[in-house]
Amino acid sequence: MGSSKPLAAVLLPVALLALHAPITTAANSNLFREYIGAIFNGVQFSDVPINPNVRMDFILAFVIDYTTTTNPPSPTDGQFSIFWQNSVLTPSAVAAIKQSNPNVRVAVSLGGATVSNTPVSFAITSVDSWVQNAVSSLTTIIQQYNLDGIDIDYEQFQVDPATFADCIGQLVTTLKNNGVIKFASIAPFDNSDVQSHYQALWSSHGSVIDYINFQFYAYDSSTTADQYVSHFNDQIANYPEGNILASFTTEPTANSVPIDTALSACQTLQSQGTLYGIFIWAADYSSNQGFNCPSSNQPVQTSSQLHMLQMASSKLIAVVFLSSLLALHVPMTTAANSNLFRDYIGAIFNGVKFTDVPINPKVRFHFILAFVIDYTTATEPPTPTNGQFNIFWQNSVLTASAVASIKQSNPNVRVAVSLGGATVNNRPVFFKITSVDSWVKNAVSSLTSIIQQYSLDGIDIDYEQFQVDPATFAECVGKLVTTLKSNGVIKFASIAPFDNADVQRHYQALWASYGSVIDYINFQFYAYSASTTEAQYVSHFNDQIVNYPGGNILASFTTAPTTTSVPINTSLNACQTLQSQGKLYGIFIWAADHSRSQGFRYDTQAQALLANAASY
Length: 616
Prior knowledge:
There is one protein chain. By secondary structure, the protein is an alpha/beta fold. The chain folds into 2 domains: 31-289, TIM Barrel (Alpha-Beta Barrel), CATH 3.20.20; 340-611, Glycosidases (TIM Barrel, Alpha-Beta Barrel), CATH 3.20.20. It contains 16 helices and 30 strands. Helix 13 (534-547) crosses helix 14. The chain is globular, with a radius of gyration of 24 Å.
């Protein structure tokens, strides 16, 4: 991941990305990432300053599917070997840095520019053999070192873009489905061949790529801050909806974008609400400078990490980031059109299966298991268990193997579980605790067990009755979500309020103090009356934009046989209006159990609407 790269001014047309599943443009966040271990100068994890208020990813550089037993080194068709300084950056070092810094994760980068001064090219024997070998060898390395994710940094290619996309896409999907990694990133730069390969990957498998480590420092040294920002905006177009990180290099070179220029551009990006994070190439070089910026003597880690902490504290803004110590909110624009479709499933016990539900490959699809509840039915009536969650969905049908199978066969699918719900055995479910600390401790422990057993991706909060005040509810749920994210147990969290005064007080208190860790708002618009018109539905939606500012609010309807809810056609018409206004982030349905009797007609229509949006 060096700095001397041939640049190209012409980017591939956005048309290449037409098949990519839309997500909103990333907003400000506090992700800081640093490559480490490539230069073999003895740099250690513990040498690097770590701000506890950022999410910090170390990225080991590199593992490469090459062997040095030949001269020159030659490709091994997906059989990866370690090429970082693993005599220093050992498994025990990984464990120690994560143990002492709960905000730290460690990933490994695949590829890089050279091995033993020979260019590394992406070369395969066949797609199947490369993927099989890569999954096997990487799983061994990742598990040996207890790593959390991978980064893709191939920079030369002996295959066409479609083949590269197929190989890498299958690799990432398989490692995620197997629970081997929690996240994946790509590291392109502005070269026409590089861009064609990575944009093909983004087009077909963007849904499994979490971050884009774009090598902005590979532009030339005359680049101004304004030009840097312009280049950043170009990549937003090239990788639509991606979490694009700004970057700079601390490598001693006269050919790269100056650090001060990059940091100035980062300030501008942050002011515009588009600074998702920053990465540095590389800690090895930074250590030679005492982790100080050469031009200003300002610590580069501290300087870049501070950019992600200089956030407005207004309760009217929020964005997702992980840090149990960080209470600041980051500016976020109102959610734009996106293709997220969510469907609750399993509450009615009528045998509905994941495979019964039509899945449009052009949407991001979330199943939400309904429910887990911290109640026991060992008593009559059922009673609260202070955060000890039990399964109340139909898990005899929606099994752990069923979860694995649906995700394996549909790379756009994730599966979450909802907490709470309205009733258990026809008795109201209340949010009730013994104490904040005991509830959070029990909830983290019991949910972690369930989530890991079923290989789930996220949680949804759907408590609807409360025996605590709003501040206590906010503290409990906020700490729960923050901890599960910080521990790498979940990737996302949502809330499911509706327009009831007490419900809104509790969820708005949660949003005000912990909105930064809430990814989606499943607002139950169908809970309005059956006389609701399309215009009123849109008006209600706009009300919730005010109530949950900066939130990714989903429209919704119910397929339950009822005459008291908003009619489905009214909801779908309102969704079309919201989409035309650029506000339709997604749609959720309650519930697949009911939809089955209708042949999933409306699930199909909703997904088609999201998949075929005219503009994003």
